[in-house]
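assembly run, all chains below
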Amino acid sequence: MSETLHIDWTRCDGRGLCTELLPTLLDRDDWGYPLAKRATNGDRSNVAVRPAHSEAAREAVHLCPKMALSLANQVAGFGQ
Amino acid sequence: MTPVTAEMPMVVDRQGPSGTHRLFAAGNDAGLAEHVQTFGALPSHGVDARLIDVVEASGLTGRGGAAFASWRKIAATVDARSGAPLARKPVVIANGAEGEPLSFKDKALLAHAPHLVIDGLLTAARAVSGGQLFIYATDAGLPAVERALAQRHDSRSVRLVAAPETFISGEASAVVNGIANGPALPTDHRRRLSESGFKGRPTLVLNVETLAHMALIARYGSAWFRTEGSDRDPGTRLVSVSGPAGDRLLEVAGDAGLGDVLSSADIDTSSIQAVLVGGYHGRWVRPMDYRLSPTGPASHTVRPGAGVVHALPDSVCGLETTAQIVGYLANESAKQCGPCMFGLPAMARVLNSLAYGGRDPQLVRELGRLSRMVTGRGACHHPDGTAQLVGSALEAFSAEVAAHLAGTCSKRMGRRS
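ok done. output:
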């Protein structure tokens, strides 16, 4: 099962550390916020992470100064 | 298609109201006596977890906008409760915040049929073995509910909470946050509300109209509910119709024709150039041969959202109207999430330019780029809904876009030369 990197937008401040650690997964948008290069069903708040990037993703979670990132095995997919 | 007007309570047999006049069948300002006389008392048998199957068979979907299958939400709340190591009683919230400026059906329902909403809330609470119950509505909606609660003895556990008059106050996580902590702002969705909502408890948030339908389904069953509407959109829904003829509240069958809805609201469709369906997060459509249904091909169906239909007269520029709406939506951002806080004002600026004199063909491309940039990137769907509105405006008013880029506006000849 692949992991997903969840971005809590209410915490994210666009510092950009995650985009430097995960350049293959994340771009920066016009304002510096992480921009998932690939969406999963239109969702770009839960970014699929392949095993090759798992360690870098873990590092991003630990180093995010706003604690806006978390890793999980599955995506919350509820309408509410 | 029943215009909601003042009339005397009708007597309903055990089969339930016939036709589409359901939710307001007890008449205007219905008190407990008219309510019970019309609908009968809420049955005491069978209204428990078994109700989930009945609601599933009814095909009821949420009337707050997302049209999520109601039974799934209820079942998820029950599952979360039984799956938790420490069983905590679920919290059930009747959501009547109705932040959408073009919607007035929830306010009308709370004002005229508060007992149906309360019945629905008690029904949902029994289905999930709920503990704390809330009715969340703006100040305008609360007095009638307060009076209704004072008339009955079975609803002492219900608490009323005032919702602020903001666009996003009715988003489910904002509702929970507002009741639990004060600010009615959306929160991050790492976990479902059904698992962890109000103070970490399993939480079920249902729109007040959804609950009113559930109160009738609990009485008359799923087959009765499906006697109106279609297989893909059973039952009835309230529709707030606005436009040049003023505001009209209708209760219409599911899968209703958009043209029929407009005619029922006395709107002359020949004087209408486009219709905004689903509200400010909705979609502009033209011409009128669409059906209102949460599912179906986009070429023939348009999602009713919270039941909003707004008719744009021929004389008004659709780009200017949409620019004003997007300006409002940008201002209503909770300003918690960067892509929304910066992206929506950027979209509003570009659309304003296009609406009021800008002739750079790149404006259209820039709107598309910004829309894609904000979509799917927020704690709630405010950016997604805004992007959908803008995309539909560029499509529905494509001739107007071309006119504006050429330095004219078909609605204001000569103004832009």
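Residues 5-13 of chain B have pLDDT under 50 and may be disordered.

The longest strand of chain B covers residues 236-242.

not gonna interpret more than that til we talk
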